[in-house]
Automatic annotation (TrEMBL):
It comes from Paenibacillus antri. HAMAP family: MutS. It comes from the Bacteria. This is DNA mismatch repair protein MutS. Keywords: ATP-binding, DNA damage, DNA repair, DNA-binding, Nucleotide-binding.
Length: 885
């Protein structure tokens, strides 16, 4: 483009500072976008693309725009789609500008830095993280800009860093390019909707940079790697926010080992915060546990669930507090009622720091502070150490509340630029101006009466509009009575004429001047107050944290009381002993009393691993998940769904479900499963809990079974962790004989009159069958298919028996014999029924056809789940050829 207009020149130079964002360029009442921004925005926002001349006529450029008053909506839509928006405003008064009005970017909104709008959930944090790598250590600095929380943690590998990022459910990651490549590779799409923003590390000394730019920021405990991450994060925030970040006043550093590690897959699979099927909060453990009354409490409870504790002392402190409230219904109810009056102090503080809080926000702050003394009084009386600490802090923000109550009008408008913000009597000058404006208005009201009398026009009115100011209005019928000379015509309407008089004009000038001054003065007073409060933000944040903790504890106590949960006895040993445990979520959706409770005993000296076989639909997955959930609940300080529970502290919970259940995940799910198993084997310790549902299902039976056995043996021999494995491979039951600490268990069923009832009771011993065909029958498959399936099964079993008669090929890895302690026969009342007992006596097996055997063998060996469609076609073609040959 040869020559551009001065305005375009300005646009291009501003755009150069916001390459990776849409530039919303303010022109009058619109934000305009040009060039590629315009083309893309028109498509994403479904708005009309136009063009305008930018210099020479042939250089028409694409453009589109959105009205500034509805820009928030458009910005939110772009952010939701993972874009960034740089907002460029006029920064000088057009009247004073020489040439093009100066324009600057005032803020860049990005997915990780949204401060308001509907993109932001009230009950969840919105984290932005910076990630750096230094000599193999990966540090993360994560910040929720809306609340001012700022954390730093360093991990030893990219995989661990990825786990941490998943905990924060970050929406945006700022990192150098090589780090983003590694993270993307490690996360492999497991963290959905993350925007990667590539930035280089800051040049020079991170620590010096931080102290120079953020002198008030506390950096205790940060090492060099943490500091790099914090500096990168704050540099990005400075670049995008272009304003005070006074509410970020402390970086909290922690060791990853102070919390239980839960990888993204385990979180997802256990449905801790959202369900697998529709990623909804409803149906998750969080939804079950969340009876908080405030958004702060809801966010804190989620953070607790994201990071279960590892210290028995800290867990017991929380449990004591929960117990104190669980036992005291009245206290709990009173607390809840008071908490309902508490506003989101964390986000209010953020808005105050940002200078975007309005007068209503300050009133909300005062209303919140008003509740604090009573809440703390209740908390003090509850009789728990943690509640005592929370209420022991004497700061209730009474001074801040007084400032607000003295100054701010009880019912102010949402805008801070229209006056009406400040109470009468607060500022003498403002009162004077108000009086002047009021007396002017009184004078005008009196004038109306006087003019009616002077002219004899009874319908004469004095009105006001923004364009013409005050005027005297006379209807057309009365125009003849208008005094000649004294009234000056100003505006003609269809039914009336409007006039002014010199004295009305003079009064108007006085009133408007007073009002303008009043608006400015009120805004000035308000701003001063807001800044004064901004200096107290660390206090407000501490208070917010105390209130959030009360709410989270109150929530856990309410849930415990409502669902008959018990206090777990948490200890640092190995043994797990749950009497009559229940699955908190499944139980809540079943009609009361129908959930069948089950015991769990995993001990160092007897059973460390359970191999659970049993029919489909019998409740294996539910049972294993319930054990994991109970352990996680205990470590966040929650009561648990059981009659009694002694729960050891675990460092990690791993879960893995069969590949076939995870098909939505992508192409090679079996590969992903194996990678997860690899991580599990590498990371699990004796203090971990491993839950594997349908191990090795994604490949052929032989290989699947071999892998399952090898993994179980490895966990048993080399790790010694608590393990729950469910399998369809009943053949693996023999492992009980060779693995000292493994026991068989199964889900009991009862049969009567050809009907199978799942009893959902875990009993010792191995199941004989999966009842898969029975399930198929329940699902309504035609009788012909069911009959044929039974016939084939019978045949397969006969083959298997024949093979079993040959020399054994599967040897036990565990050396040494194991005492005979097979699980024993199931309860007499509960038969591990052999569905095929009748079958053995039933029609003789069809005559053996070697060709059919070969086909069956081929089909059995086929790894269908890992075949491409073409391979599957070829395979089918081969089969067909063989049947014809
Ligand atoms: N203890 C229980 N009490 C009552 N109902 C239960 C119980 N456990 C499971 N259920 C019900 O049984 C259904 C099947 O349970 P689950 O998915 O755990 O079975 P499964 O043995 O893992 O089956 P599959 O092997 O087919 O995956 C669940 O949807 C649940 O509603």
């Amino acid at each position: 483009m040869a020559k551009v207009t001065p305005m375009m020149e300005q646009y291009l130079s501003v755009k150069a500072q916001a390459q990776d964002a849409f530039l919303f360029f303010r022109l009058g009442d619109f934000y305009e976008m040009f060039f590629e921004d315009a083309v893309l925005a028109a498509r994403e926002l479904e708005i009309t693309l136009t063009s305008r001349g930018a210099g020479a006529e042939e250089d028409r450029i694409p453009m589109c725009g959105v009205p500034y008053h509805s820009a928030e909506n458009y910005i939110a839509r772009l952010i939701e789609k993972g874009y960034k928006v740089a907002i460029c405003e006029q920064v000088e008064d057009p009247a004073e500008a020489k040439g093009v009005v100066r324009r600057e970017i005032v803020r860049v909104v990005t997915p990780g830095t949204v401060m308001d709008g509907k993109t932001l959930s009230e009950r969840a944090n919105n984290y932005l993280a910076a990630v750096v790598e230094r000599s193999g250590r990966w540090a993360i600095a994560a910040c929720d800009l809306t609340t001012g929380e700022l954390y730093a943690v360093a991990t030893e590998s990219a995989a661990d860093a990825a786990d941490e990022l998943a905990v924060y459910a970050v929406t945006e990651v700022v990192c150098p390019p090589y780090v983003s490549d590694r993270l993307k590779e490690t996360l492999e799409g497991r963290l959905k909707h993350v925007v990667y923003t590539e930035r280089q590390l800051i040049a020079g000394d991170d620590g010096a940079w931080l102290t120079e730019r953020f002198p008030a920021l506390r950096l205790d405990g940060l090492d060099g790697t943490h500091r790099s991450a914090a500096a990168l994060l704050l540099q990005y925030l400075t670049e995008t926010q272009k304003r005070s970040l006074g509410h970020l006043h402390e970086v909290r550093v922690y060791e990853p080992s102070v919390y239980m590690t839960l990888d993204p897959f385990t979180r997802k699979n256990l449905e801790l915060t959202e369900t697998v099927r529709d990623r909804a909060r409803k149906g998750s453990l969080l939804e079950m546990l969340d009876k908080t009354a405030t958004s702060m409490g809801a966010r804190l409870l989620r953070r607790w669930l994201d990071k279960p504790l590892m210290s028995a002392g800290a867990i017991r402190l929380r449990l004591d507090a929960v117990e104190a409230l669980q036992k005291n219904l009245l206290l709990r109810e009173d607390m809840r009622e008071l908490l309902k009056r508490v506003y989101d102090l964390e986000r209010l503080s953020g808005r105050i720091a940002y200078g975007s809080a309005n007068a209503r926000d300050l009133n909300a702050l005062a209303a919140t502070l008003a509740v604090v003394p009573e809440l703390m009084e209740l908390s003090r009386g509850a009789g728990s150490e943690l509640l005592g600490t929370i209420s022991g802090d004497p700061d209730d923000g009474a001074d801040i509340r007084d400032w607000i109550e003295a100054a701010v009008h009880p019912e102010p408008p949402a805008s801070t630029r229209e006056g009406g913000l400040i109470r009468d009597g607060y500022d003498a000058h403002l009162d004077k101006l108000r009086e002047a404006s009021k007396s002017g208005k009184r004078w005008i009201a009196e004038l109306e009466q006087a003019e009616r009398e002077a002219t004899g026009i009874r319908s004469l009115k004095i009105g006001y509009n923004k364009v013409f100011g005050y005027y005297i209005e006379v209807t057309r019928a009365n125009l003849g009575m208008v005094p000649e000379g004294r009234y000056e015509r100003k505006q003609t309407l269809a039914a009336a004429e409007r006039y002014v008089t010199p004295e009305l004009k003079e009064k108007e000038a006085l009133i408007l001047e007073a009002e303008e001054k009043m608006v400015d003065l009120e805004y000035g007073i308000f701003q001063q107050l807001r800044e004064k409060i901004a200096a107290e933000i660390p206090r407000l944040q501490r208070l917010a944290e105390r209130l959030a903790s009360l709410d989270a504890i109150q929530s856990l106590a309410s849930v415990a009381a409502a669902n008959r949960y018990v206090r777990p006895d948490v200890h640092e040993g190995f043994d797990l002993d749950i009497e009559s445990g229940r699955h908190p979520v499944v139980e809540s959706v079943l009609t009361s009393g129908t959930f069948i409770a089950n015991d769990t005993r995993l001990t160092m000296d007897e059973t460390r691993a359970l191999l659970i076989t049993g029919p489909n639909m019998a409740g294996k997955s539910t049972y294993m998940r319930q054990v994991a959930l109970i352990m996680i609940m205990a470590q966040i300080g929650s009561f648990v769904p059981a009659k009694r529970a002694r729960v050891p502290i675990v460092d990690r919970v791993f879960t893995r479900i069969g590949a076939a259940d995870d098909l939505a995940g992508g192409q090679s799910t079996f590969m992903v499963e194996m990678q997860d198993i690899q991580t599990m084997i590498a990371k699990a310790t004796e203090k971990s809990l491993v839950v594997i549902d349908e191990l090795g299902r994604g490949t052929s039976t032989g290989e699947g079974m071999a892998i399952a056995q090898a993994v179980i043996e490895h966990l048993h021999e080399n790790v010694g962790c608590k393990t729950l494995v469910s399998t369809h491979y009943h053949e693996l039951a023999h492992l009980e004989g060779s693995l000292r600490y493994l026991s068989n268990a199964c889900m009991a069923v009862k049969e009567s009159g050809g009907q199978v009832t799942f009893l959902r009771k875990l009993v010792s011993g191995a199941a004989d069958t999966s009842y898969g065909i029975y399930c198929a029958q329940l699902a309504g498959l035609p009788d012909s298919v069911i009959d044929r399936a039974y016939a084939l099964l019978h045949e397969f079993e006969a083959n298997a028996e024949a093979r079993a008669a040959a020399p054994a090929v599967v040897g036990a890895a565990a050396g040494g014999g194991k005492p005979q302690r097979r699980g024993g026969a199931p309860d007499a009342a509960i038969h591990q029924l052999d569905m095929f007992a009748d079958w053995n006596a039933a029609p003789p097996a069809p005559k053996r056809d070697p060709r059919a055997d070969e086909l069956v063998e081929l089909v059995k060996r086929a790894d269908v789940l890992n075949m491409t469609p073409i391979e599957a076609m070829n395979f089918l073609f081969e089969l067909k050829k063989k049947t014809l040959s």
